[in-house]
Structure formats: C-alpha cells, structure tokens
Amino acid sequence: MALLEVCGASWGSQVSCGTKSGRRQDPGHYSFSLRTPELAVPRGLQPPEFLCSLEADAANQVRIEMAHGTTTLAFKFQHGVIVAVDSRATAGNYISTLHVNKVIEINPYLLGTMSGCAADCQYWERLLAKECRLYRLRNGERITVSAASKLLSNMMCQYRGMGLSMGSMICGWDKKGPGLYYVDENGTRLSGTMFSTGSGNSYAYGVLDSGYRPDLGPQEAYALGRRAIVHATHRDSYSGGFVNMYHMKEDGWVKVESSDVSNLFHEYLKTQG
Amino acid sequence: MEARYDRAITVFSPDGHLFQVEYAQEAVKKGSTAVGIRGTDIVVLGVEKKSVAKLQDERTVRKICALDDHVCMAFAGLTADARIVVNRARMECQSHKLTVEDPVTVEYITRFIATLKQRYTQSNGRRPFGISALIVGFDDDGIPRLYQTDPSGTYHAWKANAIGRSAKTVREFLEKNYTEDTIATDSEAIKLAIRALLEVVQSGGKNIELAIIRRNQPLKMFSAKEIESQVVDIEKEKEEAEKKKSKKLI
C-alpha cells in the first residue's frame, strides 16, 4: 500500500485479490490460456479509473507517464520478411538502456516485436511463446502465424481497457507462406505487407514508403530496413542504440545484424556528400 | 465382487476395471451397426437404420451427422448422448476456425471428442457417454482419415471399422475383403461398405443409410434410390461370381 500512497491515488475499498471464475475449471488445451485469466484483478478497484487517476495531467500532478518510446518495423518482400528494431529503453526522459532486445524469438519460424510498455510486451509475448510450444506438442505441427497472432490479440481483448500497452508485430513463415500481423493492446489485429510501430514509426514509414518494392533483393531489403531505423532514431528521441535486424526465410529466421545507429548515420552522411 | 464396485464411476475394482465404462460399452453393443471405410480418395460411412414405426416420420432419425464441411461422424449407442457429443463437437469446430483461422483436422476433433468422453469417466455425479463414434474426413493435406472413439475416451485410427450390434461379424468381413483392389476406386469402396452392412442387416437396402465425403467436396448423403441401385449391382456381381464358380466345377 506504500506504492498507492506515493502515487497519491485515492484508496478505494479494500483491495482483495480474487480470480473471477468460481466454477472448478481445468483450462484444457482448447482454451489457449483464455478461460482462466492469467492475472488476478483486484476486486473493488476499477483498473481504467485507477489508471486515469495516475495519468499525466496538470490537474492531477504528473505521476506515471506511459511513454511508448521505440521504433520497430517489418515488411514482406519476395524473399520473406524483414524485421528491424531499435534497442533503446526509456523511462520518461531517462534512457534506461541501449541494449534491449525488442524481438522475441518464439520459435525458429516465428518472431514477435515489442513496442510500448516493456513489461507488458515481454510478459505477454513469452506467454504467447508458451502457448505456441504447447500447440506444437499437442497437435504435432507448428502453429500458423495467423493463429499465433489471433491468440495474442485474444489475450489483449481479455484485458481491454485495463491499461496494457503493447504494439507488436508477429512475423513468421508457415504452410501458408510468409506471414506478418500487427497486434496491439486494443485487440487490433491486422495482416499487411508493411508495418512500423512506436514513437518513431512516422519517420520509419517515410523512409520505407520511398524505398519499398516487392521485388527487392535481400541486400537491398536489409539496406532499406537499416536506413529506416537509423533515420527514425536520429529524429525520435525515444529511439536509438542499435539496429537489430532479422530476415525470416522459408527455412527459419536468421539474425542479420546488430549495428550501432550513430556509426551508421555518419556513414550515410559521408555517402550523401 | 462386481456388485460392490459398479455403482460409482469414480471407483476402480480391485482387478483394475471401471465397471461403469464397461457397461457403457455394453450399451454401445446394443446400438445399430455403423461401418466406416477409408478409401484412397473417398471416405464412406454406412449405418443400419432401425425400422421405424408406421406413424413415425423417418427423416427425424439421423445417425450420420456432419461436424463441419469436411468432417462427419456416425455413432452407435444412446442417441441422446450422441446428440450432446455432436453439438459440442460442432461448436468446437467453429471455435477452432475462429481462433486458429484454419478448419479442424480430423485428428483434432477426434481428440476433442475423446477428451470430452474421458472427462465424464473421471468426475463424480456423471455417467460416461454411451456411444462409440466413427469420425471420417479429409485434412487440409488431402489425406483421408477414419477414427473410432469409445466410451472410455480412447481413440484410434482405422482403415476400416464397424461398431454397434454385430460389429464383430462386420469387422471380420472387412478384414477378409479390405484389399488394395477393393478400395482402389470410389465406387468399389462404396460397394464394400454396403456389402459389409448387408452381412448383418435384414431386409436389404431399405434399412441402410450411406454417406460419403470425397476430397475437397462436401458430405453427400445417398438417397434410398441410389442405395437400392448399388444393392442391385452388388446382387448382380454376386450372381455372376457364383455362375463362374459353378462353371468351374462342371
């Protein structure tokens, strides 16, 4: 309760933890981790109201800032899917680290990117990885990208309005070919050819849209992804560190590179003249 | 001995039997026969239709049920129990399609039905489902499949099988006659199913219900006329075979 006092939030009725379902339910493997909620919701405390009272607002006096600092991008092309992310983690105006891994390697054929609240992304995507592994064990074949992204978006729908913050792209190669889905904390799930998320996404879209062709060669695609991240990190103060790039091929993903953005930016300056 | 251990489902007998489950299997043996055959490009389900009372509307008795476009099942045993199982399986097929964006595989829905049945053998206050089911269909990869479940919740894949009354006779017939030739074409597989049922069904084609699924095609129920024409063909072939035999003897 010390945390509640520090935040200045009003103490509602007694905070008591209790899971929702009274009936004895074994989740079974067909519920995909949805029938029993993963997190206990405190009874009597409405999460959306609780969060409103903490949000950055002049009247409320700033307590917690939910900043979503990052740039991640992914696009499909003729040789598969390119995934490129930055590696800076921020807490408000403070740079916590330049070495965050914003890509979770779910299995050799599935990747998930993270943007938004680091804790939310890591937790839910690791949960997704667990469900994907269980799916593989139970059904004898790897989960499809559409199914994996649907599981994640259903998890988000369950906690809609409770203050999760996660923008993720699920990329993979399955029996239907290369797959790319964008999933966010509202439960939005979109299939597409190109996505970019995070505070630096507008800068990345600018570079991607001007250079993208479906028939890019692998090296050209790496160069495009690299350039997009570098330019986004240059302009967006919440992105930076390294460009971590993955290439999703038919036989699995490979990590292409992890390059420092400042070095890359100086190289671009040189070639521009 | 038996009397003390067969009241509750959740009690093992000293020699390791769950008597309620075994009694459920007896209930299955009382049901009308169903036969399933897995061909190369076709799967066939045939059931023996119980003769209906004069005033009863025949169409309300359906023993072959579609679970989805590409999967169907036939059962033997308590019809009411089967209705519940079929309902749950149909819901699961759609729920799977919604969550995973892919139609169920035949193995998945069989596993679901079997898990459902097993759950009822391990909870108090409930009795096991008194049905065995034959589940047939094609998977996305185009391979035909036939599975059988029983009241204990086990399931196995089969090339051809029969359940219900006289299942043993029919299975022996299938063991003798299921060869690469007899399932080579669709019509041969259909004939094999009808011949197997004719072994045990009285009064011929009127009491047989037949359904087939061909690869990438929906379930097709045979009309009474189509079954009759198949039966007539089978009778002709039988006569010709007998004539040949008698010629040889002479």
Please tell me about this protein's structure:
Chain A has 7 helices and 15 strands. Chain A is of the alpha+beta class and 273 residues long. Chain A has a single domain, classed as Glutamine Phosphoribosylpyrophosphate, subunit 1, domain 1. In chain A, the strands form 4 sheets. In chain A, strands 7, 8, 9, 10, 11 and 12 form a 6-stranded antiparallel beta sheet that branches. About 7% of the residues of chain A have low confidence. By secondary structure, chain B is of the alpha+beta class. Chain B has a single domain, classed as 4-Layer Sandwich (Glutamine Phosphoribosylpyrophosphate, subunit 1, domain 1), CATH 3.60.20.10. In chain B, 41% of the residues lie in helices and 22% in strands. Chain B contains 7 helices and 10 strands. Chain B has a 5-stranded antiparallel beta sheet with strand order 8-1-2-9-10. The longest helix of chain B is centred in the C-terminal third of the chain and has 26 residues. The radius of gyration of chain B is 19 Å and the shape is globular. Chain B starts with a helix and ends with a helix. Classes of the chains: A alpha+beta (273), B alpha+beta (250). The interface between A and B is small, with 11 and 11 residues.
